[in-house]
Amino acid sequence: CSFARSPSLFGMGMWSLGLGAVGAALAGIFLANTDLCLSKASNATLEYLEGADLHGEVIKAKSLWDKNGAVVMAEASELSSLKPLLEELGVPLVAVVKENVGTEIQDFRPHFAGDIYIDEEKRFYGPLQRRMGGLGFIRLGVWQNFMRAWRSGYQGNMNGEGFILGGVFVIGAGEQGILLEHREKEFGNKVDNADVSEAVKKIVAVK
């Protein structure tokens, strides 16, 4: 074999393989920290959301916002600080989760000032469900978000269908429509509270 007879050629070959592996790893890290491998979000329609059957007590989603509008969280956002403004305007703050794995809802309650429902159909995570796989764990933003949640005392879970990305909706009263739709770009990607406040102030309650 020519490589065996020429140590220098063998060394160059191993060096090239090493460089190729490093290059592939760097390319993987680069792609994981962009949105190039993440499917584009598909905006939900009011008709799509309002037909969802929500469990806790079984209700149609439309009843949440029919009279006064609503802020609906399908992610672990830090929106409880907006509770005084929402109460002043008569707008409910509710959370929907995909499932109740173990004590997930029980663990979440101390960190959320509102009602929690289970969206088994995952309408608030669609119409096109987006998942962030294992590459998400090498995104810098994901680790920053995990650390922020850990410091606040809520760690969430990656069990069950925890890899599905969620979002936040501000929905107007009656047929006013969706006034704000925020979709997570990565685990823990929070909506801007100022954007939520601005959208909530546009809600016109049904008399």
From TrEMBL:
Keywords: Antioxidant, Cytoplasm, Membrane, Redox-active center, Transmembrane, Transmembrane helix. InterPro entries: PXL2A/B/C (IPR032801). The keyword Transferase does not apply. Its main location: cytoplasm. It comes from the Eukaryota. GO terms for molecular function: antioxidant activity. One of its GO terms (cellular component) is cytoplasm. Pfam families: AhpC-TSA_2 (PF13911). The chain crosses the membrane at residues 12-32. It is found in: Cytoplasm. The keyword Chaperone does not apply. Belongs to the peroxiredoxin-like PRXL2 family. PRXL2A subfamily. This is Peroxiredoxin-like 2A.
